Amino acid sequence: MNGFPASRPATVLVVDDEVDILDLLTAALELSGFTVFRAATGAEALEMTARLAPDILVLDVMLPDYDGFTVAQLLRAEGNEVPVLFLSARDALEDRLAGLGAGGDDYVSKPFSFDEVVMRIRAILRRTASPGDGELLRYADLELDEAAHEARRGGRTIPLSPTEFKLLRYLLVNSGSVVSKSQIFDRVWNSDFVGETRVIDSYISYLRRKIDSAGAPLIHTIRGVGYSLRLPKATDERPSP
């Protein structure tokens, strides 16, 4: 869904109830080569996302009806995996983690520079682009179908956000090995993401809830080193992030 031909500009739905911010973001994004749609409420964002299928949402957290976190949660509940970049005046780490937990892919605090927003959008689109090679990755009873952009465990489909999908793919490609947090930042966030290591811990926690709840725990913490996707030993206990 998120791959797009080079001949077509990526489409961005900007959602903010402040007209000045909408105008300035629209101008900055159009100058950077994006096609821009606009919405001022959460309800409009949901309707336009369903109708227009944008490549990414730039979504303000504080909206007059639904807040941005609720919009993202509703989209994910419907199975819509469109990437989401949150904008918010709330910049506490807890707010950022709440945004990622709601299904967001990144979080920019207000006031922000337009160059930073453009950079974050491009980084998200790079890391969530569909590979398009139809590869099927397997480990134990876990499958990752890149052509369908779908994860399955024991035959049961597991909904994942685009970043969760990319992280799980990286763990699968390196199954049996230990990957460090710096490696994950480099390969999953493409070094363009500036954030706390707790963001990785949070994403690992989200994946565990979805993947490990369907069977034996596969995602393990190697304390002081990183993470590993592997079958548990008989003496292993379920790890925590």
Automatic annotation (TrEMBL):
Positions bearing 4-aspartylphosphate: 60
GO cellular component, one term: protein-DNA complex
GO biological process, one term: regulation of DNA-templated transcription
GO MF annotation list: phosphorelay response regulator activity; transcription cis-regulatory region binding
Name the UniProt record assigns to this protein: Two-component system, OmpR family, response regulator
Domain named OmpR/PhoB-type: residues: 134-231
The Response regulatory domain, residue ranges: 11-125
Source organism of the structure: Amycolatopsis saalfeldensis
DNA-binding region as annotated in the record: 134-231
